[in-house]
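User: Run a structure prediction on this.
Assistant: Running it now.
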Amino acid sequence: MSLIDFILHIDDHLIPIVNQFGGWSYLILFAIIFIETGLVVFPFLPGDSLIFAASAMAANPKYGLNIWLVYLIVAFAAIIGDSINYEIGAWSTRAGEKHSWFNKLINQNNRLAAEKFFERHGPITIVIGRFIPFIRTFVPFISGDSKMHYGKFITYNILGGLLWTGLFTIIGFFFGNIPFVKDHFSMIVIAIILVSVVPIAIVAIKKKISLKKEFH
């Protein structure tokens, strides 16, 4: 099962996973959200669409998923994941030069985009960044790398984690049983992914424009 196939047909894969693993599906949800938010080298995992899909399934009793448990699981994973990512960023400041291989694993373009976003918006970036793929994974890393006070970080981390997972849980749950959504579930998920990537495209375009201006 390729990652692209998983993202584009997340409903087709999630349904058999839930049917096969039952209650263990919550652990799978936790793991994917935790890895996407907690490990800076995995920013491409399907966080938004996965929460939406799981919540939409929870709206249908036949899948046996509890919407409140889904929300608590993904929110906890998001908050813990960002906390781990913060510590990785702090570690990279202390020992990163001794482990140059680590920096090679990190997409430097995404890192720079997140740094600029952080510089522009300040600590609230920890909340706003939750809703932007790739930026979401790099912001806690940069927070630790910049030696932000952990007390301030964890406050924004909890707020952002609860809002981000809450939004997609609510959207997924209330749209999950609408006939059109049921019949076009994959298209809806793809649309969410495309919309969530728009901010990244805007940042990239602005970056190219600024580079052209510098050369002229």
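The chain has a mean pLDDT of 76.
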